[in-house]
Design brief:
globular
Length: 111
């Protein structure tokens, strides 16, 4: 049973099942970054938090995803092998799922 409040994001792109997903954008040199500003976000804390990070992370678990600032920082620096992103807000996770799997379609619909 799939958890509607969680999103798996393998760094190795093993879930790359079509050319319309976020990995396709990354392959073209477009670096994904936070698309939401979230109350209580970690964006401003990243300079302090990065000093505490290990050199690599096997499995990154994010229980309070929000805007995903920490996730995007870790991803852009290739610091994790797998990520499980979650939040109690299932609509937020659904939004993230859409951004991950269909960014081209999403951009087209927003124009």
């Amino acid at each position: 049973m799939k958890n509607k409040n969680a999103l798996l994001f393998p760094q190795d792109q093993s879930d790359k099942h079509n050319e319309n997903n976020v990995h396709d954008l990354a392959d073209r040199g477009t670096v994904p970054r936070p698309f939401l500003k979230w109350v209580g976000g970690k964006r401003a804390l990243i300079p302090q938090l990065e000093k505490l990070l290990p050199p690599s992370i096997e499995n990154y678990l994010e229980p309070f995803l929000g805007g995903g600032a920490m996730f995007f920082y870790l991803q852009s620096n290739a610091l994790f092998k797998n990520a499980k992103l979650s939040d109690v807000n299932s609509e937020l996770i659904q939004t993230w799922q859409t951004v991950k799997e269909s960014p081209h379609d999403l951009l087209k619909s927003l124009r």
